[in-house]
Structure formats: structure tokens, C-alpha cells
Amino acid sequence: MSKSLAVVNCSQVVTLSGARRPRTGGDLRQLAITEDGALFVSGDRIEAVGRRKQIESLITPECEVIDAGRRVVMPGFVDAHTHPVFAGTRANEFEQRTAGATYRELAARGGGIRTTVRATRNASLSELVKIGKRYGEWFLRGGTTTVEAKSGYGLTIEDEIKILRAIKRLDEETPLNYVPTFLGAHDIPFEYKTRRHMYVNLVINEMLPRVAEERLAEYCDVFCENEVFTTDETWQILSAARCHGLGLRIHADQLSLSGGAKLAAELNAATADHLEHTDTEGIEALKAAKVQPVLLPGAVYALGSSRYPPAREMINAGLAVVLATDFNPGSSPTPSMTTILSLACTQMKMTPAETITASTINAAYSVGRGDEIGSLEKGKRADFVIHDCEDYRELPYFFGVEHAWRVFTSGRLAFARSGQ
Ligand code: NIG
Ligand code: FE
Predict the structure, then answer these.
(1) For ligand 1, atom 1, which residue shows the shortest CA distance?
(2) Which residues lie near ion ligand 2 (Cβ < 5 Å)?
(3) What residues have CB less than 8 Å from 53, skipping those under 6 apart?
(4) Could you tell me the distance, in angstroms and rounded to a whole number, from the CA of residue 328 to the centre of ligand 1?
(5) Per-block average pLDDT, block size 10, for the chain (420 residues)?
């Protein structure tokens, strides 16, 4: 018989139970909270969620019982946009930006993504796994139990495969769950600077078939931006990716209104990410094609910008908004979902409840796992967090604090804060 676990004495069990679809409009605020609730887990699955009395009746002598001490229990965060496998840091460029250099200027000088590409090419698979494990612990510590993880700092066949293999090993060897995305079109590598079409061909004709053959990715992403990949090139790459059975994501309209959102709609992509410069037309296109917007306020904040994506307009238009960290060494060096929730509340005027939905159930749907994770419902995988607060609104309210007290993935303890 599989091991069972009961979590009792919770101030709130934030279940997010409800319709089996990404949440839009007023549904973003419906968290389906059970006050004074409890949770029962059997093996790696959620068996029951309910009032304390009801769950207590299920407890047998073999069952492990955890007293939550009047804390909040929630699904683990699903971070639907990260770049977590890279070598080195860009603390140096961070300092240069404090002196006035811009992200684009640094990139134009051969810095930015290319700095990280140089370091990552020089790292071995096992070095990348070691580095990735350190960041993986950071995610868990913040209450994140699944991350969508992009390659994109290799930009040669072998180096992109190396990163995707590192992601696979991280998924297998650690309690954090990874959803792999191939981002060979993250930048034009230096050696192809004067023959960019050759690089696009390499991605389409050699990288994608290899990635698909080795089943190393579920999604393909492209950085669609003036000076990076044009909408034409993005269309070519993502159309090829679709033929290989991959889902589609786009870095869209981050630094300028470059047409990424509209293209995401045209291609029926799963997500369009960033969207800082997307206009009403782009929002309407996303709505018509049911593309989920993945908003990344950490990248706006860390680049020192104040141009946050128009979250309220998107919610009013009926989009199933997602929030994610964009964890990466350049534009968003944070793995902290609670920081993102705080930014979304203060800078984008999302309500605390909306931010919770956007970072759990909606995020789960955006990575193709809406039936498996993102809410606390019978039959779902037991990925949940006990947060050290009495009310879920404290998560974005007390910012700069990681609230996670115990983190479970597949019903097993993945992180415990030391002390009380
Ligand atoms: O999502 N926009 C492109 N990619 C990343 C930045 C990566 C980097 O600077 O290393 C982003 O912001
Ligand atoms: Fe990104």
C-alpha cells in the first residue's frame, strides 16, 4: 500500500479547484479556499481536500500527520518561463548598467546573452548540472515545484543538446520538475553575425531534428525582436518546430512592438511571453487565438524600466494571464515567485488572488500540465507548499521574504525550512 500523509490544522487550503481550463476574467479571483482545512495524500497523489473533521476521519495509524500550525497550504508555484541552465554570472554587466549602460548597448558590444553563451560553451555537462542544482534549490526554497526550462546559451548543436541534457538530468535527479523548451533561436551567435540566414537554417535543418529525435524538448521558443530574430525568421523556425510535434512559445514584444504577439496568435502558440510593448490589437489577436500571455515583471524591474505589460487590459480582454520569473543571468536574475507576485500587485495592479491563479493553475495549463498540477484536487500530483503565514495575501504583501516552510513534490518532502 502506498504511503499516506495528512496535513492538518491549516488556516487556509487554497485549492484553486474549479473548471478544468485556464481561468479568465472574474474566475482569476476565485481561489476556492477551504478555511480551517486539511489535505490527504496517498503516494504521489492528492486523495482528498476538505474540512479538518472530514480529513481526520481518513487518518489511519500508518499515516504520517503534519501539523501545519495554522499556516496556508497551496499548490506549488509553476514557473512557466525560466532560463535556469547557464555558466557564470553577469554581475559585471549589472554594475555597468548601474553606471548608465543599457541592456541593448551591452548586447551590441558583444555582451549580454553572448557573454553567457561563451561561459556556457566552456562548461561541461556535469558542471552545468552542478550549477543547475544550486538554482534548483533556490526555486524549491521559494515554493516553486515545476519550472519550464529553456536552453539557449549554447547556440551550437552540441551545446544546445548539452543544455537540454542537463535539464533532463536535473529533472531526473532532483525533486524539482522541469518542462524542457528548445531555445536555439535565443540570439544570433557571433560566428554567424554576417550570415544570419545560415544560422536560421542550422536551427531548422539540424538542431530541431536532433532535439526532436532525442526527445529533449516539449516546446520550442524564439526571441522575436528587432535586431534578434525577425517575425519572418520566427515564423519559419516555429513552423518547423510544429512539424516535429513541439508546442510553441515566443519571446514577444519585449523591447519594442515587433509583432511577436500577433505572430503567436497566427501560429496558435501556447504562449506569448513578455508583451511589455504589446498594443490593443495584439491583445485582441491573443484573445481570438486563445494564446496565454506569460508576464515577466522581474525582467522589467531588473532592467530598470517602468514599462510593465498591460495586465489589467489583458485580464479585461479575457486572457488567461500567467506570471513567471524569467530567471536568467541578464534581464531577470531572480527565482522568486513571491517577488514576482509582489511586483504584479504593486506595478501591474493585479489583485493578490489574481496573482495566485496566474502562478499556479494558469501557469500549469500554459505548460501543458493543467490536468496534472496547479491546483489541489483529488487525483492531481501532490506538489504543494505550506507557507508560513495565515492568509495567502501575505505572500505578495510581505515582499523580499520567502514564506515557504515545507515544500512537497509528488507527496515527498523536497524542502524544509530549518528551525521553526
Ligand atoms: O527573457 N529576452 C531574451 N531572453 C531573456 C534574457 C536572457 C539574457 O539576458 O541572458 C529574457 O529576458
Ligand atoms: Fe526569457
Answers:
(1) 326
(2) 326
(3) none
(4) 7
(5) 91 97 98 96 97 93 96 98 98 96 92 97 98 98 98 98 98 98 97 96 98 98 94 98 98 95 98 98 98 98 97 98 98 98 98 98 98 98 98 98 97 91
